[in-house]
Amino acid sequence: MSDDVWLVVGLGNPGEKYAGHRHNIGYMVTDELASRMAGGFKRHKSGRADVVEGRFRPGGARIVLARPHTYMNESGGPVKALCSFYKIEPDHVIAIHDELDIDFGTLRLKLGGGDNGHNGLRSMRSSLGTGDFYRVRAGIGRPPGRQDVADFVLSNYSGTERKELPFQIDNAADAVEGIVADGLERSQQRFNS
Questions:
Q1: What gap in Å lies between CA 59 and CA 64, rounded to an integer?
Q2: Which parts of the chain fold into alpha helices (H)?
């Protein structure tokens, strides 16, 4: 059995009101991963996140899936609390989030980097004291016309996008499993489209 422990954080906003929004792709992917692990989210002792603990495959690394209870711009506090509780270093944290500068349906995986204006990443960087964690960046594209960016990310996917969304969620979940099992470089070759 591997004694590695990974924290996989789905970034999003809590509550039914936000469930289908583009900004909540991280929550959607962690739901898929929880389903694959045959686990259900439960409130963590810290009270600041829901978690599922398990493994992606027998003998594999231990996984903690997390969905912070805070809004996106305050995600860092719950992530830091979970890292402290489970004794996980930032190099074993994977954040799943929406990315405006990548076309819808496209993924990009990376380690480290800036926050590119993403409030969830900014909060994580601030709380962890580093940006050196993995990112699974799910493309949502730029808003059409002159639509405000905040309105765009806090809106539901279009009808056409909703038809393709299950494939993006499945692909992003595969990418998370790939980072844990095969490392970043091999996963980038497979998933960075």
A1: 15
A2: 25-36, 76-86, 119-128, 149-153, 159-182, 184-191
Q: Convert the pLDDT of each residue in 81-113 to its tens digit.
A: 999 999 999 999 999 999 999 999 999 999 999
Residues making up the annotated binding site are: 18, 71, 73, 119
**pLDDT by residue (tens digit) across 109-149?**
999 998 888 999 999 999 999 999 999 999 999 998 899 99
CATH number for position 21: 3.40.50.1470
Cβ neighbours of residue 15 under 8 Å, at least 6 residues apart?
none
Give the residue numbers spanning the domain of 76: 5-191
Identified catalytic residue from 21, 23, 69, 97: 23
* 93-99 and 134-139 strand pairing: parallel
How many distinct structural domains can be found in the chain? 1
The reply to whether 92 belongs to the active site is no
85/103 Cα distance (integer angstroms): 36
pTM of the model: 0.96
For strand 134-139 and strand 107-111, is the pairing parallel, antiparallel, or unpaired? antiparallel
Binding positions for tRNA are: 18, 71, 73, 119
- What contacts 189, CB < 8 A, 6 or more positions away? none
